[in-house]
């Protein structure tokens, strides 16, 4: 399972990104999606995010991808790359 959280200032880009994510998972909060899909699909989402969406982000936009597994890897895009705080995930 993967959790994608985003904060995108541009309305059109935010709507486009939400529609894109809704193809693969479901919204659990306004700007948070849960994606329970194969590794290949998650890799495709990361590639699309890197190659299509990230170049359109402003300095204040951020996207977090939480790969929920034993390793709990966190991927950061946009301004979120500057945040190096540790996260505690309680399940």
From TrEMBL:
<dbReference type="GO" id="GO:0004521">
    <property type="term" value="F:RNA endonuclease activity"/>
</dbReference>
<dbReference type="GO" id="GO:0051607">
    <property type="term" value="P:defense response to virus"/>
</dbReference>
<comment type="similarity">
    <text>Belongs to the CRISPR-associated endoribonuclease Cas2 protein family.</text>
</comment>
<comment type="function">
    <text>CRISPR (clustered regularly interspaced short palindromic repeat), is an adaptive immune system that provides protection against mobile genetic elements (viruses, transposable elements and conjugative plasmids). CRISPR clusters contain sequences complementary to antecedent mobile elements and target invading nucleic acids. CRISPR clusters are transcribed and processed into CRISPR RNA (crRNA). Functions as a ssRNA-specific endoribonuclease. Involved in the integration of spacer DNA into the CRISPR cassette.</text>
</comment>
<keyword id="KW-0460">Magnesium</keyword>
<comment type="subunit">
    <text>Homodimer, forms a heterotetramer with a Cas1 homodimer.</text>
</comment>
<dbReference type="Pfam" id="PF09827">
    <property type="entry name" value="CRISPR_Cas2"/>
</dbReference>
<dbReference type="InterPro" id="IPR021127">
    <property type="entry name" value="CRISPR_associated_Cas2"/>
</dbReference>
<dbReference type="GO" id="GO:0046872">
    <property type="term" value="F:metal ion binding"/>
</dbReference>
<keyword id="KW-0378">Hydrolase</keyword>
<keyword id="KW-0051">Antiviral defense</keyword>
<feature type="binding site">
    <location>
        <position position="7"/>
    </location>
    <ligand>
        <name>Mg(2+)</name>
    </ligand>
</feature>
<dbReference type="GO" id="GO:0043571">
    <property type="term" value="P:maintenance of CRISPR repeat elements"/>
</dbReference>
<protein>
    <recommendedName>
        <fullName>CRISPR-associated endoribonuclease Cas2</fullName>
        <ecNumber>3.1.-.-</ecNumber>
    </recommendedName>
</protein>
<dbReference type="GO" id="GO:0016787">
    <property type="term" value="F:hydrolase activity"/>
</dbReference>
<keyword id="KW-0540">Nuclease</keyword>
<keyword id="KW-0255">Endonuclease</keyword>
<dbReference type="InterPro" id="IPR019199">
    <property type="entry name" value="Virulence_VapD/CRISPR_Cas2"/>
</dbReference>
<keyword id="KW-0479">Metal-binding</keyword>
């Amino acid at each position: 399972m993967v959790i994608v959280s985003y904060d995108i200032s541009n309305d059109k880009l935010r709507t486009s990104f939400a529609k894109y994510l809704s193809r693969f998972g479901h919204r659990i909060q306004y700007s948070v999606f849960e994606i329970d899909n194969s590794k290949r699909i998650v890799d495709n989402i990361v590639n699309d995010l890197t190659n299509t969406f990230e170049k359109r982000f402003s300095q204040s936009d951020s996207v977090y991808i939480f790969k929920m597994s034993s390793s709990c890897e966190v991927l950061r895009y946009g301004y979120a790359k500057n945040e190096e705080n540790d996260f505690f995930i309680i399940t």
